[in-house]
Specification:
The complex is a heterodimer of chains A (about 170) and B (about 325).
Chain A (H helix, E strand, L loop, with lengths): L2 H4 L7 E7 L5 E7 L1 H26 L5 H8 L4 H8 L3 H8 L1 H4 L4 H11 L12 E3 L2 E3 L4 H5 L3 E7 L6 E7 L3
Antiparallel strand pairs in A: 1-2, 3-4, 5-6
Helix pairs in contact in A: 2-3
Chain B lengths: L4 H12 L6 H7 L3 E6 L8 E5 L4 H10 L2 E5 L4 H13 L4 E5 L18 E9 L2 E5 L7 E4 H8 L11 E6 L6 H17 L8 H10 L10 H17 L8 H14 L4 H29 L4 H30 L1
Antiparallel strand pairs in B: 1-2, 3-8, 4-5, 4-8, 5-6, 6-7
Helix pairs in contact in B: 1-2, 2-9, 3-6, 6-11, 7-11, 8-10, 9-10, 10-11
The chains are: A alpha+beta (about 170), B alpha+beta (about 325).
């Protein structure tokens, strides 16, 4: 691939590719990601639909919050068990809404650590209005354009999180 | 920045110690290029990879060049952090293995759980570490809690706090020996490993099995997402483009100069062409995923393209084996 054919203008995701240069050498080229430049919207579209589908299932008590985050972070049951240190048999139970209630608080802490969220987020969805739809996020640009920023602050008590809504500057 | 996190991290660390070496040379000497296709219980979809096992680049480079690294793993995160701080106080940049998910200087859509990301820590300011990440265009800051989580994430290929840094870097290294060793090992990996899912056989298997992917998917959307991920794996996950084939072509160009043998320029040209074919596969995958045109016919067409590349790589590495044997 020639250098001129590989260059893509996309500042949000830069990477190094190797290409044939004009002096006939093969060397590194800093460019935007072709994939992200052309298909990121599609990725968000698929992901947005996936989030909505999972959220509906959670509302309808078809899945547990553990299954929600496991699916969002694309972890298999075996990988989640290995990362949390909780036996697969118990993880399988916690993925179902009915048996999620058997999870101990200490186990919830372990899951939250893997998902990098506060324990409190297993029992709430924090969202802001976007384009007339309730959306769980993931779209950074869309998040920036929202009138409110909601941040969650850790405390020394791992079960307690402080949630701060802040009005964004117009 | 660098094309790939492990080869880039090793290159940056030895460059810091005065050894002038390019990333493609580190990658090639270490036999970084590879291929594998397998289904494991750890993932819902089959895994496709185009490089050798994480950690092997560092290991092979050390063995084949005589550069000595000190590597340490830890059970205790507190001890691991203290040792990192101690080395930073000595102005020693340190390489770390981490889970990419916790590198929160990247946007959320970019981050996935993968325990085999490599970074260089170059300093500390209060509660933040100063990070040089091959995939990030600028020097970044990372809170110590996030770094701790990244270093001690569990699961497959867990980092276990791995840190490493060079302790003995010769000023001059006769690279020809390392290059020959690297080439031989690469040819063995691609042609001779007796497993049906590794090397060229892995590419063939990928081509055969892609038509079965709808069986793993809940719906078309999930299938489309995973077909997109083929492109991401080949082009966007720090491969230098075309699943490491372009960076390997660059290595072969350097080999021609170092070994003073123009035949390797021809091999570089052929590898670039093989890379172009992989890129066409990536673009094809993106197109059919975007259109949700994921019926058996299209997947079979994609499988045919992959199998054709398997035959090209088989011929390439067979010829390369004869060249280095002569």
């Amino acid at each position: 691939m020639k250098e001129k054919d590989i260059l893509t203008d996309f500042k949000a995701h830069q990477l190094i590719l190797y290409a044939e240069k004009e002096d006939d050498t093969i060397g590194p080229v800093l460019t935007g990601s072709y994939m992200a430049a052309n298909y990121l919207d599609e990725f968000h579209h698929i992901w947005g639909n996936f989030e909505k589908e999972l959220f509906e299932k959670l509302l309808n008590k078809e899945i547990s919050p553990i299954d929600l985050y496991k699916s969002l972070e694309e972890l298999s049951l075996a990988e989640l068990a290995a990362r949390s240190g909780i036996p697969k048999r118990r993880v399988r139970k916690h993925l179902k809404y009915k048996t999620f209630f058997k999870a101990k608080v200490e186990e919830l802490e372990r899951y939250a650590d893997v998902f990098n969220i506060p324990v409190a987020n297993f029992f709430q969805i924090i969202s802001t209005m976007q384009d007339g739809n309730w959306n769980m996020g993931h779209n950074l640009e869309a998040t920036k354009s929202r009138p409110l920023t909601i941040s969650q602050e850790k405390t020394p008590n791992s079960l307690l999180v402080i949630t701060n809504p802040e009005k964004n500057e117009p | 920045m660098a094309a790939h996190c492990e080869s880039g991290t090793v290159t940056n660390l030895v460059n810091h110690h005065g050894l002038r070496i390019s990333e493609p040379l580190v990658f090639g000497i270490s036999s970084g290029i590879f291929f594998g296709y397998m289904k494991t219980p750890m993932r819902d979809f089959p895994m496709v990879f185009s490089r050798i096992r994480p950690g092997k680049i560092l290991e092979n480079f050390t063995k084949r060049t005589g550069v000595k690294f000190k590597s340490q793993k830890f059970n205790d995160p507190v001890k691991a952090e203290l040792e990192l701080d101690r080395m930073l106080e000595k102005n020693q940049p340190v390489g770390l293995q981490v889970d990419f998910f916790y590198m929160d200087f990247f946007p959320p859509w970019h981050r996935v759980h993968i325990n085999v990301h490599y970074i260089v820590v170059i300093g500390k300011e209060d509660d933040h570490y100063i990070i040089s990440d091959c995939y990030h265009p600028t020097i970044a800051k990372l809170h110590r809690d996030s770094l701790r989580k990244g270093r001690f994430a569990k699961g497959s290929m867990a980092p276990k706090g791995l840190m490493f840094y060079p302790v003995d870097v010769p000023r001059e290294i006769p690279f020809d020996k390392g290059i020959r060793h690297g080439l031989k090992n690469t040819v063995f990996n691609m042609l001779k490993i007796p497993m049906p899912f590794l090397g060229v056989k892995g590419i063939r298997r990928f081509g055969e099995k892609i038509v079965d992917w709808p069986n793993y998917a809940r719906n078309t959307e999930q299938l489309a997402h995973n077909i997109f991920m083929i492109t991401t794996m080949l082009e966007d996950q720090g491969t230098g483009g075309a699943g490491f084939r372009y960076i390997y072509a660059s290595f072969l160009r350097e080999v021609a100069t170092i070994l003073e043998d123009v035949v390797f320029n021809e091999y570089a040209k052929r590898m670039m062409e093989i890379g172009d074919d992989w890129r066409n596969i990536s673009l094809f995958a993106s197109r059919i995923a975007k259109r949700r045109d994921l019926g058996t016919e299209k997947l079979r067409e994609m499988g045919d393209m992959i199998r054709a590349n398997a035959e090209l790589e088989h011929q390439f590495f067979t010829d390369l084996r004869q060249t280095i044997a002569s």
